[in-house]
Amino acid sequence: MPTGGAGESIVQALSAFAAMTEACGARWVVGGSAGLALRGARLAAAPRDLDIYADAASIPALHDRVAGWTVDEPAWDESGRYRSLLSHYRYGSVTIELVGDFEIRAPGSIYRTEVDAFLYAHGDDWTPIDGGRPIRLMPLGHELIFNLLRERRDRALEAARLIREARGSHLIALRQLVAGQSLSDGIKSELSYLTAAEPKEGARDGR
Description:
Blueprint: H1 8-21, E1 29-31, H2 32-38, E2 49-54, H3 59-65, E3 75-79, E4 82-91, E5 94-106, E6 109-112, H4 115-122, E7 124-126, E8 135-137, H5 140-149, H6 153-166, H7 169-180, H8 185-196
Parallel strand pairs: 2-5
Antiparallel strand pairs: 1-2, 3-4, 4-5, 5-6, 7-8
């Protein structure tokens, strides 16, 4: 089973989550460091947990299917710049974070995840070699926007690199995300810069 840089325990937890929720009818996508690692991103450290994103309306169905792994119940959580319907689960050594209607606010920007309306359709399939069903990964455009807004430039640069290497549908999805979200002019400019050509690190951030 190919793991990219995600690690075997993450892949096992992801495969188990997919199997448990397969017939519940709810759509979800894998994001965060695990999603990037499965794409071959060069991360400073292997993922330590698994981030699953869905619409809030889908959370009850997903929660019911993995109730035996429950650490806490879904509840609205607002901390700093983030807001979501959040719950946690444990599979082996892996913590799974189930995130509904995720929202991040930054100066001049508000970004919200819309899984059913956009992200699921514009994501990419990751298929285990053991014949398990394809698992949907977050669009790279989401990872780029999200990491710029939370000031994780290392992750943003990796997402941008992967977009530049593949371009095509990734750029189309990114442009549609930008058009459908409320992003500052500064963030829009940085998105354009990072995906247009190889960025010269230091030229835009004072380093």
